[in-house]
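BUG: 3D viewer hangs when loading the predicted structure for this chain

Environment: internal workstation, default settings.
Expected: structure renders.
Actual: progress bar stalls at 90%.

Input used:
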Amino acid sequence: MSLAILKGLANVILVLAAAPFFEGLIRKVTARIQSRQGPPLWQPYLDLLKLFGKEDIESGESPVLQRLGACLSLAAVLTLAWFVPMGAAAPLSEAGDAILVIYLLTLCGVSTLLAGLAAGSTYSLFGVSREMMAMLTLEPLLAVAMIVAAVEADSLRLSSVLGASVYSIEGLPLAGILMLIVLLFSLQAFVGRIPFDTAEAETEIMEGPLIEYSGPKLALFKYAQMSKLFVYCALLVGVFFPWGANWPYPIALIVLLGKVAVLVLLITVLGATHARYRIDQAIRYYAALMVLSLVALTLALVGF
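Structure tokens produced before the viewer hung:
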């Protein structure tokens, strides 16, 4: 048990250390694509330090709920890191199941909704309504993906679901391939990047649910968003691209970081070359992906 705790803490430290770097990578590559120099790779670290050093001003209707939302946002992501393999087997893979992962993924979005509701601003409530519409159509995609993997593994236990269980059937794994396509096309939306950042839409409602936040609480939300990008990519790798995870720890970790970097670059290129979708366009896009995910689930249930 003590070894599992150490591995879990190592995962948390890895997320906290690497997440701002990948955020800096996104900013740098985006700037290069747009013919700008861009900030240095370590700029997100400096931004977080600056926000943590500011005065914690509370101007919302429910300061207690604001503090809870800020802490819960980052805590949910870091808790999820205990169940995701990062260069080694997931520390608590034997203690959790696919349902728990789905709950933790949903909790990340719920904390943002709580934060916006606690602020009470007209603009924050506008952002909350967008975030809620996106969650209702987007979050089920991850749930279906985990269920498809559980069906193929014939178990809800996380240790069975992870490790490319969606490819475990003989022949052409149609359900796994289709679910992989769905998640790749929805990854941009899961991490809230352009063209699916309609909830915060800086040019319209300036940060959406977080418009009333500053200082340490805003730093926690920003850190959670950066960490969410890294953990979601690592989870996608764990379910669909785990090859190389059984290699010795330092090599397996480097391979994982390389895979995550590829996904981050894909997100960056799409974000830098596409305009933001309107909320109605985004909802229709999510609905189409939901239909495809249900087709994948049906195929998994009938053995394809």
